[in-house]
Fold:
Amino acid sequence: MIRAIIFDLDGVITETAEYHYQAWKQLAGEIGIAIDRQFNECLKGVSRMDSLELILQHGGVAEQYSDEEKAALAERKNRQYVALLQNLTPNQVLPGIRDFLRDARADGMKLGLASASKNARTIMDALDLTQSIDFIADAAVARSKPAPDIFLLAAEGLGLSPENCIGIEDAAAGIKAIHAAGMKAVGIGDAATLREADLLLNDTEKLNYNAVKNYFC
Ligand code: B16
Ligand code: MG
Structure:
Protein backbone atom coordinates (compact mmCIF):
# COMPACT_ATOMS: atom_id res chain seq x y z
CA MET A 1 0.00 0.00 0.00
CA ILE A 2 1.59 3.28 -1.13
CA ARG A 3 0.94 6.14 1.28
CA ALA A 4 3.74 8.61 0.49
CA ILE A 5 5.80 9.92 -2.39
CA ILE A 6 9.29 11.23 -1.69
CA PHE A 7 10.86 13.62 -4.19
CA ASP A 8 14.40 14.45 -5.12
CA LEU A 9 14.79 18.20 -5.80
CA ASP A 10 17.42 19.07 -8.43
CA GLY A 11 16.36 17.45 -11.71
CA VAL A 12 12.90 16.42 -10.49
CA ILE A 13 11.17 19.46 -8.98
CA THR A 14 13.40 22.10 -10.57
CA GLU A 15 16.59 22.32 -12.62
CA THR A 16 19.15 23.86 -10.27
CA ALA A 17 21.92 21.84 -11.99
CA GLU A 18 22.70 24.83 -14.24
CA TYR A 19 23.29 27.09 -11.20
CA HIS A 20 25.46 24.40 -9.59
CA TYR A 21 27.37 24.17 -12.87
CA GLN A 22 27.96 27.93 -13.11
CA ALA A 23 29.13 28.14 -9.49
CA TRP A 24 31.44 25.10 -9.77
CA LYS A 25 32.81 26.31 -13.13
CA GLN A 26 33.73 29.65 -11.62
CA LEU A 27 35.43 28.08 -8.58
CA ALA A 28 37.23 25.45 -10.69
CA GLY A 29 38.44 28.18 -13.07
CA GLU A 30 39.84 30.17 -10.14
CA ILE A 31 42.05 27.20 -9.19
CA GLY A 32 43.03 26.37 -12.78
CA ILE A 33 40.65 23.48 -13.52
CA ALA A 34 38.40 23.48 -16.60
CA ILE A 35 35.03 21.73 -16.41
CA ASP A 36 32.28 21.51 -19.03
CA ARG A 37 28.58 20.59 -19.08
CA GLN A 38 29.39 16.97 -19.87
CA PHE A 39 31.55 16.72 -16.72
CA ASN A 40 28.77 18.43 -14.77
CA GLU A 41 26.52 15.42 -15.50
CA CYS A 42 28.52 13.34 -13.01
CA LEU A 43 27.94 15.95 -10.26
CA LYS A 44 24.14 15.58 -10.35
CA GLY A 45 22.78 14.23 -7.07
CA VAL A 46 26.31 14.18 -5.58
CA SER A 47 26.87 16.03 -2.29
CA ARG A 48 28.80 19.32 -2.16
CA MET A 49 32.02 17.88 -0.71
CA ASP A 50 31.93 14.81 -2.98
CA SER A 51 31.41 17.12 -5.98
CA LEU A 52 34.47 19.16 -4.98
CA GLU A 53 36.49 15.96 -4.63
CA LEU A 54 35.50 14.89 -8.17
CA ILE A 55 36.50 18.30 -9.56
CA LEU A 56 39.88 18.24 -7.80
CA GLN A 57 40.49 14.70 -9.07
CA HIS A 58 39.50 15.81 -12.57
CA GLY A 59 42.20 18.50 -12.31
CA GLY A 60 44.67 15.97 -10.86
CA VAL A 61 45.16 18.10 -7.72
CA ALA A 62 43.12 16.26 -5.06
CA GLU A 63 46.24 15.63 -2.95
CA GLN A 64 47.31 19.28 -2.96
CA TYR A 65 44.54 20.59 -0.69
CA SER A 66 44.11 20.06 3.06
CA ASP A 67 40.66 19.33 4.53
CA GLU A 68 40.46 22.94 5.75
CA GLU A 69 41.27 24.28 2.28
CA LYS A 70 38.66 21.97 0.73
CA ALA A 71 36.04 23.18 3.22
CA ALA A 72 36.89 26.79 2.29
CA LEU A 73 36.60 26.02 -1.44
CA ALA A 74 33.22 24.34 -0.94
CA GLU A 75 32.05 27.32 1.10
CA ARG A 76 33.18 29.70 -1.65
CA LYS A 77 31.26 27.72 -4.27
CA ASN A 78 28.18 27.71 -2.06
CA ARG A 79 28.25 31.50 -1.64
CA GLN A 80 28.27 31.86 -5.43
CA TYR A 81 25.51 29.22 -5.77
CA VAL A 82 23.29 30.91 -3.18
CA ALA A 83 23.77 34.24 -5.01
CA LEU A 84 22.63 32.56 -8.26
CA LEU A 85 19.58 31.14 -6.47
CA GLN A 86 18.29 34.72 -6.27
CA ASN A 87 17.26 34.17 -9.91
CA LEU A 88 14.97 31.29 -8.98
CA THR A 89 11.22 32.00 -9.31
CA PRO A 90 8.03 29.89 -9.03
CA ASN A 91 8.06 29.70 -12.86
CA GLN A 92 11.03 27.36 -12.63
CA VAL A 93 9.10 24.42 -11.19
CA LEU A 94 9.45 21.68 -13.84
CA PRO A 95 6.38 20.86 -16.00
CA GLY A 96 3.85 18.49 -14.42
CA ILE A 97 5.15 18.82 -10.86
CA ARG A 98 2.59 21.26 -9.45
CA ASP A 99 -0.32 19.21 -10.84
CA PHE A 100 1.23 16.00 -9.52
CA LEU A 101 1.66 17.44 -6.01
CA ARG A 102 -1.88 18.83 -6.02
CA ASP A 103 -3.46 15.57 -7.21
CA ALA A 104 -1.40 13.44 -4.80
CA ARG A 105 -2.31 15.57 -1.81
CA ALA A 106 -5.99 15.66 -2.80
CA ASP A 107 -5.86 11.84 -2.82
CA GLY A 108 -4.44 11.77 0.73
CA MET A 109 -0.80 10.95 -0.14
CA LYS A 110 1.93 12.24 2.17
CA LEU A 111 4.66 14.15 0.34
CA GLY A 112 8.34 14.32 1.30
CA LEU A 113 11.59 15.79 0.00
CA ALA A 114 14.90 13.89 0.02
CA SER A 115 17.45 16.21 -1.58
CA ALA A 116 21.21 16.10 -1.11
CA SER A 117 21.11 19.91 -1.07
CA LYS A 118 21.62 21.82 2.17
CA ASN A 119 19.89 24.69 0.34
CA ALA A 120 16.71 22.65 -0.25
CA ARG A 121 14.49 24.75 2.02
CA THR A 122 15.64 28.03 0.40
CA ILE A 123 14.95 26.56 -3.03
CA MET A 124 11.48 25.27 -2.07
CA ASP A 125 10.66 28.71 -0.62
CA ALA A 126 11.80 30.44 -3.83
CA LEU A 127 9.61 28.05 -5.86
CA ASP A 128 6.68 28.71 -3.51
CA LEU A 129 6.38 24.97 -2.86
CA THR A 130 7.22 24.64 0.84
CA GLN A 131 3.53 24.44 1.79
CA SER A 132 2.95 21.70 -0.79
CA ILE A 133 5.30 19.24 0.94
CA ASP A 134 4.72 17.60 4.35
CA PHE A 135 8.35 16.96 5.34
CA ILE A 136 11.76 18.13 4.11
CA ALA A 137 14.56 15.77 5.22
CA ASP A 138 17.73 17.50 6.42
CA ALA A 139 20.54 16.84 3.92
CA ALA A 140 23.10 16.70 6.76
CA VAL A 141 22.77 12.90 7.00
CA ALA A 142 25.80 10.72 7.75
CA ARG A 143 26.00 9.06 4.33
CA SER A 144 24.97 10.67 1.04
CA LYS A 145 23.22 8.95 -1.90
CA PRO A 146 23.56 6.07 -2.96
CA ALA A 147 23.21 5.29 0.78
CA PRO A 148 19.54 5.13 1.82
CA ASP A 149 19.86 7.60 4.74
CA ILE A 150 18.06 10.66 3.29
CA PHE A 151 15.11 8.59 2.00
CA LEU A 152 14.82 6.73 5.32
CA LEU A 153 14.87 10.06 7.15
CA ALA A 154 12.10 11.38 4.90
CA ALA A 155 9.93 8.27 5.52
CA GLU A 156 10.53 8.60 9.27
CA GLY A 157 9.60 12.29 9.16
CA LEU A 158 6.35 11.39 7.41
CA GLY A 159 5.68 8.72 10.05
CA LEU A 160 5.63 5.88 7.51
CA SER A 161 7.53 2.66 6.78
CA PRO A 162 9.76 2.69 3.68
CA GLU A 163 7.67 -0.02 2.00
CA ASN A 164 4.75 2.41 1.99
CA CYS A 165 6.78 5.00 0.04
CA ILE A 166 7.76 5.64 -3.58
CA GLY A 167 10.86 7.73 -4.39
CA ILE A 168 11.30 9.88 -7.52
CA GLU A 169 14.85 10.59 -8.73
CA ASP A 170 16.82 11.80 -11.75
CA ALA A 171 20.25 10.44 -10.72
CA ALA A 172 21.51 6.83 -10.75
CA ALA A 173 22.86 7.23 -7.20
CA GLY A 174 19.39 8.40 -6.17
CA ILE A 175 17.66 5.33 -7.63
CA LYS A 176 20.14 3.14 -5.73
CA ALA A 177 19.41 5.11 -2.53
CA ILE A 178 15.64 4.62 -2.96
CA HIS A 179 16.04 0.86 -3.48
CA ALA A 180 18.50 0.58 -0.59
CA ALA A 181 15.80 2.22 1.57
CA GLY A 182 13.35 -0.52 0.52
CA MET A 183 11.16 1.75 -1.63
CA LYS A 184 10.00 1.54 -5.25
CA ALA A 185 11.71 4.02 -7.59
CA VAL A 186 10.47 6.27 -10.38
CA GLY A 187 13.32 7.48 -12.61
CA ILE A 188 13.14 10.75 -14.54
CA GLY A 189 15.58 10.73 -17.45
CA ASP A 190 17.14 8.37 -19.91
CA ALA A 191 17.25 4.58 -19.77
CA ALA A 192 21.03 4.43 -20.12
CA THR A 193 21.54 6.11 -16.71
CA LEU A 194 18.41 5.02 -14.87
CA ARG A 195 17.92 1.43 -16.00
CA GLU A 196 17.39 0.25 -12.39
CA ALA A 197 14.24 2.36 -11.92
CA ASP A 198 10.96 0.42 -11.47
CA LEU A 199 9.16 2.97 -13.63
CA LEU A 200 11.07 5.19 -16.05
CA LEU A 201 9.75 8.43 -17.56
CA ASN A 202 11.67 10.66 -20.00
CA ASP A 203 10.77 13.89 -18.23
CA THR A 204 8.48 15.34 -15.57
CA GLU A 205 5.82 16.22 -18.15
CA LYS A 206 5.06 12.49 -18.28
CA LEU A 207 4.64 12.36 -14.51
CA ASN A 208 0.92 11.85 -13.95
CA TYR A 209 -0.25 11.12 -10.40
CA ASN A 210 -3.00 8.63 -11.25
CA ALA A 211 -0.78 6.77 -13.71
CA VAL A 212 1.99 6.41 -11.10
CA LYS A 213 -0.47 5.34 -8.42
CA ASN A 214 -2.09 2.73 -10.70
CA TYR A 215 1.33 1.41 -11.68
CA PHE A 216 2.43 0.72 -8.08
CA CYS A 217 -0.88 -0.02 -6.30
P1 B16 B 1 24.22 21.84 -1.94
P2 B16 B 1 19.47 16.74 -5.39
C1 B16 B 1 21.94 17.81 -5.34
O1 B16 B 1 20.55 17.95 -5.35
C2 B16 B 1 22.52 18.34 -6.64
O2 B16 B 1 22.08 17.56 -7.74
C3 B16 B 1 24.02 18.30 -6.59
O3 B16 B 1 24.56 18.83 -7.78
C4 B16 B 1 24.50 19.12 -5.37
O4 B16 B 1 25.91 19.07 -5.25
C5 B16 B 1 23.85 18.57 -4.12
O5 B16 B 1 22.43 18.62 -4.25
C6 B16 B 1 24.25 19.35 -2.86
O6 B16 B 1 23.76 20.64 -2.95
O7 B16 B 1 25.61 22.24 -2.32
O8 B16 B 1 23.18 22.92 -2.20
O9 B16 B 1 24.14 21.30 -0.53
O10 B16 B 1 19.47 16.22 -6.79
O11 B16 B 1 19.85 15.68 -4.35
O12 B16 B 1 18.20 17.46 -5.02
MG1 MG C 1 18.57 15.13 -8.50
